[in-house]
Structures are given as C-alpha cells and as structure tokens.
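=== RUN LOG ===
request id: a7f3
mode: sequence -> structure
chains: 1
length: 365
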Amino acid sequence: MNPIISDSQRKYTLFMLVLVFTSSHIDRQIMGILGQPIKESLMISDTQLGLLTGIMFAVFYATLGMPMAMWADRHNRRNLISFSVFLWSLMTALCGAATNFVQLLLLRIGVGVGEAGSNPPSHSIIADLYPPERRATAMAIFGTGINWGILFGFLLGGWINEWFGWRTAFVVVGLPGIFLAILVRYTVKEPPRGYSEQRQEAVKPPAFSTVVKFMWHNPVLRHIVIAGALISFTGYASVIWIPIYLVRIHEMGTGEAGSYLALLIGVGGALGIYLGGRLADFYLRVTVNNGCLGSSCWPISLPLHCCISPLWLRRRWRRLPPMSSRQCLAQFMSRLLLPSFKIRRRSKCAQLLQPSIYLSSTSSG
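=== RESULT ===
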C-alpha cells in the first residue's frame, strides 16, 4: 500500500521543483543579456554567438533528454534532478573562466546536458502528486519557473555585468544552484509512481520504441509536440536576441535592457502561465474538451505582441523612446496571454499518458 503524502509535503515538493526550474532558466537565458558583452570580449561572430545560445545547446538538451527520461523511468527521479542541477550550475559558474569561443561552447554544452535531466522527471513527479482536476494548476505553478528565471537572470545578469563584468555574472548565478542540488537530494521525497491515480501495482516502464509509436499514432499528442516545438523555436529566439538587439542597436546598458525585459516577460509571463493553469482546471471541471483555452488566447495575444513591438523598438537618435502606458500595457498583456498553451499542453499530456509512458514522452517537448 502506498504511503499517504501530506498536503504540506506535496506543496514543498512543488516549491522545490519551481526553484529548480527557475535555476534552470536563469542559467539558460542569462546568455541573452550577456550576449553582446561576450561577443565584444571574446571577439566572436553572431554565428558563433548563435551556436552558443541555440543549436549546440539545443541538440544536446533535446537528444539527451530522452535517454535521461528513460533512466528516470527505472530509477530515482529526485536523484536525477539533484545531479542535473549540480551539473548545470557548475558548468554555468565555470563559464566565467572561459577565455575563448571553444571553451565557452563546451561549457554551454555541459549546461545543456545538465538541464536535459531535470524537466521530464519534474513533470512526472508533479503528475504523481496531483490528481487530474488539480494538475493543470500545479503544472502552471511549476511553469512560472521559466519567467522567474528570465526575471532574475536578466536583472542579475544585466546589472552584475555593468558593475563587475559578465564573468562574475556567470559565477554569481551558477554557484547557488550547487546548494540547491544538495537541498533537493536530502529534503525532497520521491513519490510512488501512479500515486495520484491510486495505483497499487508496480508500473512497468515501456520500451522507448513503444513510447514513440504511441505518441505518433495519437494525433493529439503528435500535434502538441509539433506545436510545442514551433512555439519554442520562436520563443527562445526572441528571448535571446531581443536583449542583444536593444544593447547593440539602441545602445542601452545591459542593466536597463534587462530591467525592462525582466518586468515585461518575467512578471507578465508568470501571471499568464498561472492564470492559464487555473483556467484549464476550471474548464476541465465544466467540459470534457478544454483545448479551447490555449487556442483562444493566441488570436488575442499575437496582434498585441506584433503590433506593439515595432512601436516599442523604433529608433529615435539610436535610443528607445520612453514607453507609454499603452505600449507597456499591450506588451504586458501579450506576455500574459501567450504562455497559456504551454500549460494546457503539459496537463493534456498528463491526462492522455499512462504514468509508465508520461516521463519518457515529456522529454520530447
């Protein structure tokens, strides 16, 4: 018989997973605000900068996510998360010691390898802790780690770079993750698999080929993965290159650019993710098909984002004009509505997949 998990233990586990996800995105997104100083210091091209922040990181993050998820299917998920946090935090801190492009590239690959082992087991633990009617809200709270990571990464990275340099910024944001890894290892408890569904029998992990076939032949899951990949393609590109654009073209300081973007993307996005999760749980209670939540927010958020951004980013003596209250509100609202699909995607996957398949499948998107 499975042990009873108290509500306080459930909340503490979710809180620690949010901290882990926040740490992950601090170390991942800080390259955006530090991109221009790194380019000037190491004298690298934009192509090399793109390799540091994009394809080389993504290749190892995406491909290693699948075998790590399969390992976590068969072993302790908490321990994998703890090791992953330790690895990416150490690699991030060591980025401050890089003296050339190759060294920094290898260290950023190390960050990607570490982060590949965190997200799938975190999703799996949350799915085991929270029943379907509460799962979307839990996933939403977990998902706010993306925006808290952008907020703290841009704020800390931007201002520390101006005061002490980009190398110090990497060390400052990387070292706390090592202590977080220790805290996860010794304070977070591994929940029984299938706990939220009250499963008593042991859940046998399937073969990887079984997971792939199951997802490919399920049109809902197949389209969710494809849509998630397209959203990530544009979302991560904008988060990385917008701060570089502001610093290089509009001659903003990294602290100033980081402050603007931290408030707009960090606070607006975090609210959008949380409210999206609450609405998803509400729709689940009142209707079977609640996929309309994510799709209904896109037609509203995209015009706001696309129409207001050119106004905000227009040149005036190579400096940004002061943002009007309407421009701030529109940009804030676009970030508020845009993330809702991500939370609907995660909760929908948890509903459609068995506990034995869920962890491996989440490594794909």
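=== NOTES ===
The chain has a mean pLDDT of 77.
The chain has 15 helices and no strands.
=== END ===
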